[in-house]
């Protein structure tokens, strides 16, 4: 599952994408509209700024904005920056690979093979969706008998 920090980052970036080209957006607006604690949001936006995705200006008329066009930022990029990897297990990570403890040799492990496939399909999907793409909210699930 995505960490709370990654979910906050996605929501903040979606907010900035919605306001792209309209000038700086104040931190308080993002925090209020996206229900993100101010202190946490400051840390997230600073991290995204160091990665070149967000720019900022201090002062009364300051705020934050996307440093790149929303069409140039994919959800895959954003999740990798915040999470470090799209892989569900360390042995399937492309950029943060680690051998799993208490496992089979990697060349013999079918679970690793499965997780490599999951990673690749997830990357293909998330790298194909950009911040500029319209994503409409979906109604909540009504069937609570199965967690899908």
From TrEMBL:
It comes from the Bacteria. Signal peptide: none annotated. PROSITE patterns: HTH_RRF2_1 (PS01332), HTH_RRF2_2 (PS51197). SUPFAM superfamilies: Winged helix' DNA-binding domain. The keyword DNA-binding applies. Keywords: DNA-binding. The keyword DNA-binding applies. PANTHER family: HTH-TYPE TRANSCRIPTIONAL REGULATOR ISCR (PTHR33221:SF5), WINGED HELIX-TURN-HELIX TRANSCRIPTIONAL REGULATOR, RRF2 FAMILY (PTHR33221). This is RrF2 family transcriptional regulator. The lineage of its organism: Bacteria, Pseudomonadati, Pseudomonadota, Alphaproteobacteria, Sphingomonadales.
């Amino acid at each position: 599952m995505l960490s709370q920090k990654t979910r906050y980052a996605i929501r903040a970036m979606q907010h900035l994408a919605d306001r792209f080209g309209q000038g700086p957006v104040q931190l308080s607006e993002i925090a209020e509209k996206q229900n993100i604690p101010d202190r946490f949001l400051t840390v997230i936006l600073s991290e995204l700024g160091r990665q070149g995705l967000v720019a900022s200006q201090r002062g009364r008329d300051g705020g934050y904005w996307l440093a790149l066009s929303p069409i140039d930022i994919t959800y895959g990029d954003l999740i990798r920056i915040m999470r470090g990897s799209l892989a569900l297990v360390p042995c399937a990570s492309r950029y943060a690979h680690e051998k799993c403890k208490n496992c089979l040799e990697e060349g013999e492990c079918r679970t690793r093979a499965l997780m490599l496939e999951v990673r690749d399909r997830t990357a293909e999907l998330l790298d194909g969706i950009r911040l500029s793409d319209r994503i409409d909210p979906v109604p909540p699930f009504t069937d609570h008998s199965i967690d899908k």
